[in-house]
From TrEMBL:
One GO CC annotation: cytosol
Gene that this sequence comes from: rpiA
Lineage: Bacteria, Pseudomonadati, Pseudomonadota, Alphaproteobacteria, Rhodobacterales
Catalytic activity from the UniProt record: aldehydo-D-ribose 5-phosphate = D-ribulose 5-phosphate
Name of this chain's protein: Ribose-5-phosphate isomerase A
Residues reported in the UniProt entry to bind substrate: 33-36, 89-92, 102-105, 129
Species whose genome carries this gene: Ruegeria conchae
């Protein structure tokens, strides 16, 4: 039951349920990756089964593709979709301008391509992901395995020239071996603490040979849905402001109990 979830999981869950309400039959929908996006995929699966919701989903990782299929959602590739109506995804951090750090689950490359190919990107997150300035969460940068140590040195030099001091760059591991992304690459995590100029850093990173993509999503996200542990959900839009609802009020617990079991 939903009441057995931790407050953070409840927050993720209600944000995901609110976002699922934005999805309508006929839409081509980008499906994000991570624990929050997994709640979304489950909720959409429930709507497909119970309401006959008819959508085509473009997953952003092999993990999401597998979950979506298990949930009965029709899965197509981005090339088959061509363009998407909406992408819904989680984030590791978001700021007041809806700029993001993503890639904590190593899926940033497909996530950025899919989000950029969408009319709208909606982020779903628990309230703890909101920051004043991005950077407390280590910034993931996807690099090709060939010469990754040289790429790391180039990244460190670029950070020096930008006066980003006191940083470290670490190779993400999966046990004893480097983490390998869905695209066969590695992830370097940049421990920056605070990113003064995220827009500039995103551009500089992608100029470095060996870097495939970085986890800064600048001017990509249109709405953020913030979930709270008590069931409150804020739908924030930079132009239209914030709409507050409570997903667990008036029988909401029953409404979603199947999903949360
Ligand atoms: O690579 C992973 C993605 O960017 C995730 O959306 C992000 O890490 C947030 O994941 P979670 O919802 O599990 O906190």
């Amino acid at each position: 039951m939903i009441k057995d979830l931790s407050p953070i999981d409840k927050a993720k869950y209600v944000a995901a349920c609110r976002a699922a309400d934005l999805v309508q039959s006929g839409m081509r929908v980008g499906l994000g990756t991570g624990s929050t996006a997994a709640w979304l995929v489950r909720r959409l699966g429930e709507r497909v089964r119970d309401e006959g919701l008819s959508i085509k989903g473009v997953p952003t990782s092999t993990a999401t593709a597998q979950l979506a299929r298990e949930e009965g959602i029709e899965v197509i590739s981005l090339d088959q979709a061509g363009w998407l109506d909406l992408t819904i995804d989680g984030a590791d951090e978001f700021d007041g301008e809806f700029n993001l750090i993503k890639g904590g689950g190593a899926a940033l490359l497909q996530e950025k391509i899919v989000a950029t190919a969408s009319d709208q990107m909606v982020v779903i997150a628990d309230a703890g992901k909101e920051v004043e300035t991005l950077g407390a969460f280590p910034l993931p940068v996807e690099v090709i395995p060939f010469g990754w140590q040289t790429t790391r040195t180039l990244i460190e030099e670029a950070l020096d020239t930008m006066d980003v001091l006191g940083t470290s760059v670490t190779l993400r591991m999966n046990g004893e071996a480097p983490k390998v992304t869905d695209e066969g690459n590695h992830i370097l995590d940049l421990h920056l603490k605070r990113i003064g100029n995220a827009r500039q850093l995103a551009l500089v990173m992608n100029q470095i040979p060996g870097v495939v993509e970085n986890g800064l999503f600048i001017d990509i996200c249109d709405k953020v849905i913030v979930g709270h542990g008590d069931g409150r959900v804020e739908l924030r839009d930079l132009n239209e402001g914030t709409v507050l609802t409570n997903m667990l009020g008036e029988g909401g617990d029953n409404l979603f109990s199947d999903l949360a079991d």
